[in-house]
Amino acid sequence: MGAVTYPDEMVASVVTERFVACQVNTQDESSKEVVARYRQAWTPDLRVLDSEGFDLYHWNGYLPPAEFVAQLGVAQGHAYLRLHQEEQATTAFEEVLRRFPTAMAAPEAQYFLAVANYKRSHEGRDLLGGWHRLQVRYPDSTWRVRQSFSEEK
Amino acid sequence: MSAIDWTDDLQAACGRAGESGKLVLLDFFSPT
């Protein structure tokens, strides 16, 4: 991450604009308390936290720059959903789909864009319509499976 | 060189997030 992804201009710009960035060296003796508190087990381990340190979204594993920014957008959308800031969540998921429609995180963005829109409107068509777009755009994704109960038999 | 302004102080990061309305990105890493 430190060699390729973090030095990337797009990554640095998004992280700096939207987050307070904190790095913890898991091998450092002084990190033992934080590592234990978050039950941290494997690196790279990325967490998005609120200002009280609550873990709102996390993932493991290296991602190249574009995939990282897309995943970060999905993480941001999830964080806003959990904070009940559905309008910001919608914006975050829409941006992922607009900028990175072929990213690995895009199907997840499509799934939760429908959720965010539904939570704003409480209209079933917003949920099912968004999931229908998931079925069409990302038919082989695991996120399509996760809403497959809604598909017509 | 990364242009990201990392801190290693999580408590300070949470404090700055509270003041700015931002979220915290926490990266657990192991030096290679």
Notable characteristics:
heterodimer, A: 153 residues, mainly alpha, Serine Threonine Protein Phosphatase 5, Tetratricopeptide repeat, two-stranded antiparallel sheet, 3 strands, B: 32 residues, alpha+beta, 1 helix, elongated
Polypeptide structure, described:
The complex is a heterodimer of chains A (153) and B (32). Chain A is mainly alpha-helical and 153 residues long. Chain A has a single domain, classed as Serine Threonine Protein Phosphatase 5, Tetratricopeptide repeat (Alpha Horseshoe), CATH 1.25.40.10. Helix content of chain A is 54%, strand content 12%. Chain A has a two-stranded antiparallel sheet. In chain A, a hairpin with a 5-residue loop joins strand 2 and strand 3. In chain A, helix 5 (106-121) packs antiparallel against helix 6 (124-137). The longest helix of chain A is centred in the middle third of the chain and has 18 residues, at 65-82. The mean pLDDT of chain B is 91. In chain B, 34% of the residues lie in helices and 22% in strands. Chain B has 32 residues and is an alpha+beta fold. The radius of gyration of chain B is 11 Å and the shape is elongated. Chain B has one domain (1-32). The A-B interface holds A 1-2, 6-7, 9, 11-13, 15-16, 18-27, 34-35, 38, 40, 43-53, 56, 72, 76, 79 and B 1-10, 13-18, 20, 22-31.
